Amino acid sequence: MNSEMWAEHMAHWKQFLIERLSSINDIGERVKIERQLKVIEQVKYAAVLNPKLLIEFINPSDTPSIEADCGDFFLTLNESQQKAVKSALGDCCLSLIQGPPGTGKTQVIAEICLQLYRQNPNVRILVCSETHIAVNNLITRISEHNEDIRIVRIRDKEQNSEVDEYSPESIMRTYIEWLRENCKIDDIVDVITNTISNYQDISLEKALALSANIVGMTCNRVGAYAFYSSNEMFDVAIIDEACKATLPEILMPLTVAKKAILVGDPKQLPPVFCSEEIEIIRSIDNCNLLNFMYIDELFLRSKNVTFLNKQYRMIDQIGDLINRLFYSGKLINGRNEEAEDSIIWIDYVPTQTWPLNEMDIEGKQKIYNLNECEIINKVIMNLDTESRNGTSVAIISPYKHQVLMLRKLLQTESLRNLYINIDSVDGFQGKECDVVIFSLTRTVGSFRFLADERRLNVALSRARDKLIIIGNLDYTVRNSLLKAVSAASKIQLYDEQFSLMAE
Amino acid sequence: MKIKFDFTLSQRFGVVERTVFELVLRGMTSANQITSIMWVFSDEVIASAFQKLVNLQILCADLETQTLALSEPVQALIEKCWENSFDLEMQDNLNHLMLDDRLIIDDPKTKAVIIAQLLPGVKLGFLINSLDFCISVGGEGDE
What we know:
By secondary structure, chain A is an alpha/beta fold. Chain A contains 20 helices and 15 strands. Chain A starts with a helix and ends in a 9-residue tail after the last strand. Chain A has helices at about 5-25, 25-45, 50-60, 80-90, 105-120, 130-145, 170-180, 185-195, 205-210, 220, 245-255, 275-285, 295-300, 315-325, 370-385, 400-410, 425-430, 455-460, 475, 480-485; strands spanning about 95-100, 125-130, 150-155, 215, 235-240, 255-265, 305, 310, 330-335, 345-350, 390-395, 420-425, 435-440, 465-470, 490-495. Chain B has helices at about 15-25, 30-35, 45-55, 70-85, 90-95, 110-120; strands at about 1-10, 60, 65-70, 85, 100-105, 130-135. Chains A and B meet through helix 7, helix 8 and helix 9 of A and helix 1 and helix 3 of B.
């Protein structure tokens, strides 16, 4: 990107964040925005620990990285995964890995960490991800292979701060227990214990983070610490789910690392703005924050992108659909298992058009569909009788009111074999289940949100074995993408009487 | 009112520097011993703490014996704080700021005055940003 366009894009971010800051009162949210504003200023003046990385991020070089010679791999990797590891460990300070659903991103990141640790037992790796699940999975996989690696897992104070094995609290508790058992001088034990326990600021977290080989935290959390000198710099920052983070969020880890590896998929969900944020963006002259994602652009332009081309999650029929609709035939099936009727579309004749003309307290239309709730209730009852014990089922919808309605109405307590998780499509990115039931909800109105290509990719690619789509075909065939999905599905008509379960 | 002065490291120091300082203050001077007892932090992090404390003249280091000690100015200040008590008219508006009969002083000008009072004629301005003083009620007369 040329420097003028970059400066203009950053100016739009700054203006957006300033206006957002003035409109919210939540302390946690304010802190996050203030950190993002700070990083924009840092980047503006190149006040970062490795300016070379920043330059590569803004203006990626035209020459591909020279791949590293890794020797033996710790984990079992396919060809594209091996290439991603070699490229990430190569000579370029910025590399990108595009990981479609189920292609083993965590496996690749774990291998990169293990390789880096083998090269240098004092290595410092910062792993950032928007979701805690991704970091926890990674940490579990790494610790299975090497118990000596020092790991710290820092959670946002603003969010649920559940204590786990690698949290600073847990590490310090273990240390103080060790101290009490092993140090003979009580005065010394008291001094250390008191100094550490009574410390109010975040210097303890920072010291533990700088002492670890692998530190896991969200991008935003990085902005909580002040890193002053190059000896506080992380050797590598690995940013998972990079396409779901906003540009200011991604910049935070980039300001404190020698080298960065961005892992994401521009074909899955981008960062989502709430309606207040959209309003602010629209009020800014010539602002393109809604339709221009710099990270997606980077994945398109960079010469150092490795595409992970084999998916191990989905059964062939589902994998083929995802491959054809979203990845232009570049995605290979790794499971190589076929089953009949893996994709089922349940069509129905609605008792009325959905959504109703009903508003929530914020004055927005409540988009839900009781007919689909009722069908899903029947579907899960049937599934429960024919499934093995422990089958995981995700019931997802693009719309939050449909999610709330499903949570309220579905009778899941009596199920014997199924574990049910009801969530929005956005809330379910990064997760997977044996069976996915996708409630399209609308029978009338716009396809803009419902059939958004990236959202649909996420919705359809969560299922390992079976995908059940509930939707009124008369409405959905008007959209080409949904029509293609229905063409690949076995169509069943729901012909029972609706009982309007909400009443 | 009889008062005594005391000091602590200021907020510019993090938990690792504070712990190192407290350990040295209590006589643990071997750098290796400190590093091994504080194993929860990496050698680099502890070395950075040593470096910061030495650069800011809180501690001094003997590279040959790999030991640390309180710097001469800090040692002198500790002695003076220990030995001396002072008469001070506490203004009423300061009383409500006192906690457990102690008043924390982090204002640089006041800190400079306290240092000059404790060690008159010695230029110790470089310590102002590194130390926070506290005034505690009680002195020889109250013992």
